[in-house]
Predict the structure of Peptide/nickel transport system permease protein.
Amino acid sequence: MLAFLARRLLTLALTAWLATLVVFAVLEVVPGDPALLMLGTSAQPEAVAALRHQMGLDRPVPVRYAAWVGGMLTGDLGTSLTYARPVAGLVTERLEITLPLALMAMLLSAGLAIPLGLLAAARQGRAGDWAVMAFGQVGIAVPSFWFAILLILGFSVQLGWFSAGGFPGWGMGAAPALKALLLPAIALALPEAAILARITRTAALDTLREDYVRTARAKGLRRRTVLLRHVLPNALIPVTTILGLQFAFLVAGAVVVENVFTLPGLGRLLYQAIGQHDLIVVQGVVVLLAVMVVLVNALVDIACAAVDPRPRVAA
């Protein structure tokens, strides 16, 4: 197990380093002057030169990259030119919204998809199975921002149960804050639940064909008991892997939904930074999202290896 963990941690470090290389190359080494892009073509040459010096663009590329990575390792992501604040502080504030939103969406997705997938597997070829498959097709085909618009029209405009956007802040209490995040979380969860339900169905069907399941049925165990005690724990291994990937995509994919609901989260910060040409913020947020995706995938691999010894034995 220790050798498996060492290999996974080494892979995590190498992948995160490659992510920083890609982000640095795209935003700083590509042709063009980042300082001129941020200030505009009508900016005075003195202002452009001053910004280039502030951003360190007058230094060699390896020195800039080393300084940037060293700053990230110490929590320094630079200073936003638009907000005149450290990027790390901005990101921390926005993560207080984006992370709970992603967690809510993941819980809603798993809570909806896993029972539906088991239902479809237990009723293969019947009406329940067809209904779950139809839900999966619709959920995959319809993007999350369209679900967001429909939810706003239904529950905010027509029924008036929820606010159409905005966030009251955690200082107003957990209940109002979670209520403001509920509709965005549902909009994010529905497409992911559609994918997860189909994967759960496939994993459950594969498990139902195993010999130990037939043995359990031959012993006289009820079908529901077999599903919950024997099929579900083994089917959850691939489902857990997909859940980890989905959490990473939920954090990164909240950009559009947060803008639909005007939530001041990490996605909206990234969207505004792109519109304002604040490349320092864009660089910090993108590399943070990339590292989060790599970290979540590594944690999922370790969790799956702890539950199922076959991957680490094969390794």
